[in-house]
Structures are given as C-alpha cells and as structure tokens.
Amino acid sequence: MDSIPSLSDIKRAHQRISKIILETPVMTSHSINEIAGCDIYFKCENFQKVGAFKMRGAANMILGFRPEERENGFATHSSGNHAQAVALAAKLSGTKAYVVMPENSTQVKIEATKGYGAEVILCEPNEASRIKTCDEVIERTGAIFVHPFDDYRIIAGQATAAKELMEEVPDIDILVTPVGGGGLAAGTALAAHLLDPNTEVILGEPKNADDCYKSVQKGKITPVKNPDTIADGLKTTVGERNFDIIKNHVSAVYTVTEEEIIDAMKMIWERMKIIIEPSCAVPFAALLKNKERFAGKHVGIILTGGNVDLANLPF
Fold it and tell me: Is the separation of the CB atoms in 184 and 178 below 8 Å?
C-alpha cells in the first residue's frame, strides 16, 4: 500500500484480521467519570492477543501477503509489543518470524516473543544497531520487513481499534491515544476523520519523550535526543507517514510528566481492576491534566496494552 489508507482499506483490513484478532471490550467506570468530569469509554486493547493493539497492524501486514509470498517469513526490530505481535501473527499465518530485540529489553517480553515461536536476535540497545542487525537478518533469510509503525498497512490495521470503538459507541466527541512512532495515533486520526469528521482526536505523550509535540509545533519531525520515560513504548520518534496524517487530522498533543503517568496508571489499576502498562496510561493522564478540554464530553480512550513486568512496578 503506497498511499494513505481510505475507508475501504480500513474496512478491508478489519475483515482480513478478524479471524486472528479479538474484538476487545469497551469498559466504563462511574468513579473515574466523576473524577474526570466526562464520560470515558475505554477500548481495552490490553485484552488483545499478545496483550496489545500491535497485533492489529502486524496481522494486517502479514495476512496481506499471499501464502507463497510468506515462505521466507517476516523480520522486525522491537523491544516489546510489536515484537510479540509479529511473532504471533507470523505463526498464525503459517510462517516464521525473526525479531531483533535490544539486549536490555525486559526478560518477560523476550521470553514472550520466543514463546510465540519467533527466533529472537539480541543487539546493542540503540537504533543504529537494531536497524543494522535487522538488515543482516533479512539478507540472511529473505524475510519481509515489518516496520513497527511507518507503513500504511500497519496504520490501516491499527485504525481498526478506533473503528470498533466508534461503531460500538457512536456518539464519541473526542478520541485519545498515546503517541510513540504513531501507528495507532495516525490510524485513529484517519478512522475518526473518515467515519465521522466531527470526532476530534487528541494525543498524549510523555514530556520526557515529546518529539511529536515538538514536531507539530515546528511543522517538521523533531527527534528528542535521549528520551527517558517509564512509558517505554513511546520513546520512538514519530514516523514520516504517521506524522503526515497526524499533522492534518489531530487537534492537539498534550504532554504529561512521569508522576502524572504513574498516578493515571495506578488509578486504572485501582478503580477498574485491570492491568495496563505505563504507555497505556498516558492518554488518560493527558485527560486528567486538561479536564476543562474534555468537560461533559463523550471521550474514547484506547488502552493500548497490559504487558508489565510485575517485578518492576512503579508503585
């Protein structure tokens, strides 16, 4: 796919992946609504296969190839949820996955990726090493590269989460997601724009990794030198295709501190009795910090994932 996905592309993606993903529940909490001053509908992608929304994009990309094209398998580089998603989507489509992971990835994510049948190749914990190692794997195996976010097929797959949410709760005023590389953020912005242009999209981002916020302000991609945040899934610089969609279809990017992320995460654990990871708490933290912007509205928040290292909780 070499152009921005259309509504029919997103619908086709949804149909394609429906056989291997879950349609996740939408949950509400009366006490959280009272605290927030608005009605929040949480789309629980923490209950998705591999515990994260990433399964949608990986499944759309991998199932988009014919069986004979999948023979050499798929390769990617990722420290977490995308790694597991590519591993499982490849396995369910009858092929092999090769996943390059930084050697400082959490052990729970490395083991989970291996558990889904992938061959895991460890590399030095920097972007250059990830790309170089992944290129070597592709050279050796002939595998097809699955970009974690900067690919229209990935974006179309991630857009299906917002599509499901908007179909289940038709009167949503604002959708909120976190932004890292921007696959989900761009997919959500596209889905909202194409399904109901009156639905606003707002993004949440850690202050310590605020490249998307800076990029929107400056009108061009502006990386952060050493992003340092508990929200490890959001350290990546926003991708070009993603940014192109975000700058046209997103109303605002709000940043939050580490303390605000932890407080929001804790509130969801305590009030909703569900497990979410720090990256997942960022959009809720952004809402709590900017209550006046959401007052009295129907707000959809995509809870992106629940893969936490229980031995290393921030509270």
Answer: yes
Give the total residue count for the chain: 315
Report the SS3 class of residue 175. strand
Render pLDDT for 6-39 as a digit per residue (tens, 0 to 9): 999 999 999 999 999 999 999 999 999 999 999 9
Residues 299, 165: Cα–Cα separation, whole Å: 11
In the chain, what are the domain boundaries? Answer: 7-52+151-312, 55-145
Q: What DSSP letter does each residue of 4-49 carry, written as one string?
A: ---HHHHHHHHHHHTTTS----EE--HHHHHHHTSEEEEEEGGGSG
Task: Provide the CATH number for the domain formed by 55-145 in this structure.
Answer: 3.40.50.1100
Distances from the Cα of 40 to the Cαs of 34, 35, 179, 198, 300, in angstroms?
10, 11, 19, 17, 6
Is-above-0.90 flag for pTM? Answer: yes
Q: So what's the architecture of 7-52+151-312 in CATH?
A: 3-Layer(aba) Sandwich (3.40)
What number of CA atoms fall less than 13 Å from residue 125's CA on the CB side? 9
Report the C-alpha gap between 200 and 194 in whole angstroms: 12
Tokens of 248: 């046209």
Backbone φ and ψ of 273, nearest 5° = 60, 35
Quick: pLDDT tens for 220-264.
Answer: 999 999 899 999 889 999 999 999 999 999 999 999 999 999 999
Structure tokens at 59: 């499944």
What the block records as the tokens of 11 is 């619908």
Nearest to 158 by CA among 235, 234, 209, 85: 85
For residues 286 and 254, what is the distance between their CA atoms, to the nearest angstrom?
6
- Measured CA to CA, the distance from residue 165 to residue 19 in angstroms comes to 18
| Unique residue bearing structure tokens 């990986």 | 58
Q: Which residues contact 222 (CB under 8 A, 6 or more apart)?
A: 211, 214, 215
